[in-house]
Amino acid sequence: MTLPALPVDVLRAALGDRVQTNVSLAPYTSARIGGPAEFLVSAGSADELAEIVSLLWAQGLPYQILGGGSNVLISDKGLRGVTVLNRAKAVAFEAGPQPRVWAESGVVFSNLANRTATKGLGGLEWAATVPGTVGGAIYGNAGAFGGDTAASLVWAEVLTGNGRERWPVEKFEYGYRRSALKSAGPKAAVLSAELRLNNATKEAVAVKIEQLSRQRKASQPPGASMGSMFKNPEGHYAGRLIEAAGLKGARIGKAEISPLHGNFFINHGQTRAADVRALIELARRTVAEKFGVELELEIELVGEW
Known about the structure:
305 residues, alpha+beta, Uridine Diphospho-n-acetylenolpyruvylglucosamine Reductase, domain 2, Uridine Diphospho-n-acetylenolpyruvylglucosamine Reductase, domain 3, Uridine Diphospho-n-acetylenolpyruvylglucosamine Reductase, domain 1, 3 domains, four-stranded mixed sheet, 30% helix
């Protein structure tokens, strides 16, 4: 009697030596923190990403798509199932009175913004210092300096259980660091997107990006971090609340709440995810006790805790 193939065996049969096992995920995250992936596979294009995710759905395998690795804290135990590295990075520009850029979801958003600048195209200056990928930005409605994904997105190609669909921006139901994909969590994967631009000059766009970059460097700390840890509560700034609570510079292990900005948690080398998690709970508890404000995470905790 022939035994049925295990789901992982089907995955290996389809993808061959592209499937790696027990790979540390720390190098693939902006904070340089995280345990191992049980299985790791890289997607080099939107078509490959759709193929891999469709296969994972068909086999019922748990998975996590990882782009730039910002805005996530991966547990020390790592991730069960399959981690898909999104390396889909094709880009195409459309000139004219209403210029556009099409980008696959693995494109680093800040790189895309700087690339549009070299063509004398504006509209994405706000994204020039935003960490992460286009796919991550669409998922979480990334934003900075008064701009956000919701205002720039025209449509995105999304893989769902019905196949590849083109979603107009309205379908994402965007709010502050929120989207239909993030809040409801339907079975879906962002493959690519078209973003609106405007005609400008290389010089004008470069000047604006330089201004925003200086502003970012003056207010946000260097070093390995996940980006902003908490959403800003209505009427407050998370960083100011954490500072007022006396927590700037607080450390657990090699994880520190930045002395420069209270909403950034810094990895000072070989930091455990558990220590960052403990700092998160310290900040939440102290701010709630002192000010009656509940801090909501902007990052996502993934893996086994």
